[in-house]
Every structure is written in structure tokens, then in C-alpha cells.
Amino acid sequence: MKQTDFARTMTNFLSKYLPGQRNLSTNTIKSYRDTFKQLLIFCDSEMDIKPEYLTFGKMKVETIKDFLNWLEKVRKVSINTRNQRLAALHSFFSYAQSENPENMFECQRILGIPFKKRAKRPIDYLSQENLKCILAQPDTSKKKGRRDLVLMATLYDTGARVQEIIDLKIADVRLTKPATITLTGKGNKKRCVPIMGKTCSLLDNYINENHLLENGNQ
To answer: Is residue 147 part of a domain?
Structure first.
């Protein structure tokens, strides 16, 4: 079967452009890929167009709008997720218009689809009493409890995502003044975060207790 223009462009976008020219992380590329998986499911189930027959000629601005509505009404995704899918599609059609200039007009119409506004809710926060109660839960007489306390204190002090804590290396932790932790976030973006003295002390004890500076564990 002859490869369609849409299939060729989408494959190059995911396998060459995003990792090669944009240097995006594996997780970000996976999110983009999931957007297209959902789009292919929509075209198949709602428009009766099989993936192998999908072309730019069938990919109109109305198609993308219907897809976004389908995500919200049928797949029950949040507005945030809907906007993330649209951002991925904007990136793709921005790339596609230079690769397939004959489709530039329709690509630009799709790029004009706005993000959906959402109501902003008040930011929740922990009171000092709540925080003390949470940090008092681990049983620090046990090794596992001391580990849990270090994790909880570091999460709170740095505001890090769970994945950012999982990805931490010893080399990312500076315990001499000024004590900091270097976090690697989405898109491999790094940021240096100062930590409080108590967190620094907990990390120092944990590193020494588990001999993390020995045997090439850095």
C-alpha cells in the first residue's frame, strides 16, 4: 500500500523532528504520540477513516475541532488534557506546513484554533500544623522510615515532582553552603533549588547511612 502524505509526515515528526531537531525528552515525545493515537482512533470510530487512508486532504480544521470536542465529551478528559492535545497538534501542523506547503492554508487554520480557558481554583496549601503532622508519620527508628522522611522533606522543600525526585543523582545534591538540589524537569530542563538546613541535615545523614558516596554510587 502506498504511504500517504499524512503518514509520512507524522512518522518523520515523531521519529526525527522531535528527538533530533527539538531534542525533546522521551516522556514528551510519548505524550505527542498518545495525541496521535487518540486522533487515529477518533478518525476510525467517528469518521470511518482507517489510519492507512488518512491524508491531509481529509484533515480539516473542522476535523480537529470535532476531535477536541470528542476528547471532552466521549473520552471525558479535562480541559488541561484537551489543551495539551491541542498544543501537540499545533506543533505538528506548524511542522507540516513547511514539509507540505501545498497544505499551508489548512495548517494555518488549524494553528488558529484557540486553547480553551478554564476556571482557576484557589491554591491549596498545608498549614504549619498539617506539615508537622505529616512529617511525624515515618517511624525514624527504622531504616525505611528514615528514608521516607528524607523523601517527604525533600519533596516539600524543593516543590519537586515525584519523577524529578526519582531521577535525582548524588551529583545533583550540594550539601555545602549554599545547599542546593539540581532538578531535571520536563524537556530535560534543569533548575537549581535551595534547601533548608533541616533538609540538608536529613540528606547528609541518609547519604552517609547508605554509603551512597562509595563504590561509584555518585
So the answer is: yes
